[in-house]
Amino acid sequence: MIHSALINVMVKAARRAGRSLKRDLGEIENLQVSLKGPANFVSAADRRAEDILYEELSKARPGYGFIGEEGGTREGSDKTNTWIVDPLDGTTNFLHGIPQFAISIGLQREGTMIAGVIYNPANDELYIAERGKGAFLNDTRLRVAARRKLDDCVIACGLPHIGRGDHELARREMAELQPRVAGLRRFGAASLDLAFVAAGRLDGYWERNLKPWDIAAGLIMVREAGGIVSGIEGHDNTLESGNVVCGNEVIHAELVRILKPL
Ligand code: IPD
Ligand code: CA
Ligand code: CA
């Protein structure tokens, strides 16, 4: 399948960083049993992957700004284009050898997401989206699921971990949704949750307190697959608010209706 030069740049960077993460995942298994544990090793794996992404992306598109989870914001001479990058989304999964993690690369142009690549090196699933050109998983065109009744739906959420977010609110949200859906899931990598909605595997997803790098690529993925993404308050700027709810038109509206008043 032929993609634009821009997508080729993003895919090349994601695959190279993916090889690095995959090698490091192999090491984790040995480190699991050591007393010191693999936590420090994982933060090094994270940084290694981000360095590769920065190197590849800035070589191909010099001047673009770069916001990465590990290295913070690097201003570019070109103020209209910014990469928004999570070198390892799903760190806790990675740390535990659970193969649900990804590299997430989004490109924002004049405030709008125009391209996204999400790559899970553990199973070689590569998600691609470009504004106006659709979303793809390993070259198959994606479309959000068509289910219209919440009780047929599998919905994913995020759960704030220790010391983060509002645990009480998260429990209220689950208590409201659990009895109304076919299944609730918590997979642990926001970028892949959004990619799964784009792929029609999940019917919907919501989470609060996310960072721009968790969702930048996923937002365009869902939209290019025909889905609706907004903040939980309705239509706030999700990249700024960090609150996300998505699904097809009907399921998105249902989720907003239930979650908004909580
Ligand atoms: C995390 C994952 C997780 C979400 C957390 C994020 P990280 O990103 O996306 O699913 O619930 O809020 O921080 O830390 O693994 O890059
Ligand atoms: Ca993340
Ligand atoms: Ca991360």
Could you describe the 3D structure shown?
There is one protein chain. The protein is α+β, with helices and mostly antiparallel strands and 262 residues long. The protein has 2 domains: 5-141, Fructose-1,6-Bisphosphatase, subunit A, domain 1 (Fructose-1,6-Bisphosphatase, Chain A, domain 1), CATH 3.30.540.10; 150-259, D-Maltodextrin-Binding Protein, domain 2. The protein has 8 helices and 13 strands. It has helices at 5-31, 39-60, 91-95, 167-177, 190-198, 212-224, 238-241, 249-259; strands at residues 64-68, 72-74, 78-89, 102-109, 112-120, 125-130, 134-137, 140-141, 154-157, 183-185, 204-207, 228-230, 244-247. The longest helix is centred in the N-terminal third of the chain and has 27 residues, at 5-31. The chain starts with a helix and ends with a helix. The model has no long low-confidence stretch (mean pLDDT 94). Residues 86, 88-91, 158, 188-190, 207, 210, 214 line the site of D-MYO-inositol-1-phosphate (IPD).
Give the gist of this structure.
By secondary structure, the protein is α+β, with helices and mostly antiparallel strands.
Task: Provide the fold topology.
Layout: H1 5-31, H2 39-60, E1 64-68, E2 72-74, E3 78-89, H3 91-95, E4 102-109, E5 112-120, E6 125-130, E7 134-137, E8 140-141, E9 154-157, H4 167-177, E10 183-185, H5 190-198, E11 204-207, H6 212-224, E12 228-230, H7 238-241, E13 244-247, H8 249-259
Parallel strand pairs: 1-3, 9-10, 9-11
Antiparallel strand pairs: 1-2, 3-4, 4-5, 5-6, 6-7, 7-8, 11-13, 12-13
Helix pairs in contact: 1-2, 5-6
Residues 86, 88-91, 158, 188-190, 207, 210, 214 line the site of D-MYO-inositol-1-phosphate.
